[in-house]
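Lab notes, practical 5.
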Amino acid sequence: MAKRLIPILVLLMSLASCSRGAEEPVAEPKPALDPGSDTVAAEKTPERTQLDEKTEEIKQVKEPGAAKNGEEEGLKRPKTKSEETLEKVNESVADSFSEHGRGAVVRSGDKLTENEKRHLAYNVNSADSEKPATPLEFKGLRKIYTYFRIKERLPQEVVDALNGSRVVIVGAVMPFESIPENGEVNEFWLANPRIVAEGCVFCNPPTLADLVYIYRNEGEAPFKFDRETLFKKVTLAAVTGRLFFGPDEVKGQLFLNSILASDVEIFE
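Output from the prediction step:
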């Protein structure tokens, strides 16, 4: 908490100084300290401003649980905008599963034309484990999707550069199939956190741009999640693996982008 308050206090003190400087005459230079004397000329004490008072209020804000020896607990720090947003998203996720049931799965709302469904022959890049994974973002996938819907094919330069390459992307974990009680699944959706924040993904199915199909090869250890957590709040994860472009279909579910995952890091 102290580290978070330091920048605020510095800023407020700086503003307070500027405020006083605009109203008061420039102070005369301090007299030099006489080596033979223990005192210097007394300085005029500046008047307290509203900013000074606000600074004192901030100094008094304490973390929850800071009280000791039976003293009354101090004030809780106000929530940041990000914390408030996350709280609302968690409530939305919990409400969605409560309304649609724990067996609900996410499906894309897109309907592709026959031309769009064609999976063209793409060159596949080798996965060089010696190189860092290429960062991938959903806003980039949205641009690829827009091109795809207009041209009925993927941009060749993007496919040549990324198909089969190692990438890493952060998103929200969403069920591809009903989640068993042990939380172990062989596949799941990684969804754009933005669309999860906008409301119920069951009532408003996302586009193919906002879903990435995550899977592992047959015979490999399944992914494991805390089932109760998935139903109560948004679960964010960073997925690293090989990116492959579609469109493809698995178990009746269409997707445009998939990742053969080598690592899934859950953010607590």
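Observations recorded by the TA: The longest helix spans residues 2-23. Confidence is low (pLDDT under 50) at residues 1-12, 14-27, 30-43, 57-72.
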